[in-house]
User: Fold this.
Amino acid sequence: MKSLKGRSFLTLKDFTPEEIGYFLDLAAKLKEKKKKGIYDYDIPRKNIALIFEKTSTRTRCSFEVAAHDCGMQVTYLDPSGSQIGKKESIADTAKVLGRMYDGIEYRGFEQAKVEALAKYSGVPVWNGLTNEYHPTQVLADMLTIREKFGSLGGRKLTYMGDARYNMGNSLMIAASKLGMHFTACTAKEYFPNEELVRECTAYAEESGGSVTLTEDVKAGTAGADVIYTDVWVSMGEPAEVWEERIRALLPYQVTREVMENAGPQAIFMHCLPSFHDLETAIGREIHEKYGLAAMEVTDEVFLSPASVVFDEAENRMHTIKAVMVATLGGEG
Assistant:
């Protein structure tokens, strides 16, 4: 396998199964070293910029802690701290930052922005989330699944909810490339993009995996090793879409019955944050308006022994560190 030094990390479509496996192996190695207090993968005198047009607890903390573990300095630019695409073009911003920083993370809206940053900056650019893809999250998900089951090939992953955007897309890409059986279980209007489904079906044919789209909850979740869901309304979407999503997606809420139908081996995964109780302002607002105590997953499932959501959250740090170490040329 060729060195990944200098590569950007924009979508898992850009990487072979071997390269994705390398990221996972490196992440596992770096995780073990961190647990033992070993930090011999230092990348000194490196500076990275974190551009956040969408805020995030896990993504920011994962990048900052991972960078500090590697001896790097971090500049955080929040939604008000950058003129990207406003007073300055993305290309011009990329050229400026590329002369000051060794790597750039971008979390925001259009995939075109992170692609442009990679095109014009001349340094590795890492996708912390766009509307279309969330590769750093899915790398953490794959590491978590591998930790729980020992392997990825042949495992069935069922994604429930709105499968049209970043999480549904990225899980389908990763699963199909790594020989897993991916199922999008949702209302037909929330199926993934047809072109991407065709691409992933081709990946699956090479890897021994499969891609299935179904509206049938019992069939879609039967025998699943992983039941995965995400919030029904993403950051930046208007409040008026809640009623439409609730009406369409409530049949695909992850409940105890869903987990039982999957089987005793099944684990529950969620990229967080989650509306599983009334402990958030949005959760209480939805409860007052629609009478729901939970949204995409019930509190019972979220807090159950099958839930590995906080393992996923921790693994964001380890897999992001692996991406930075590999693309910046650290030894690991």
About this structure: The chain has a mean pLDDT of 95.
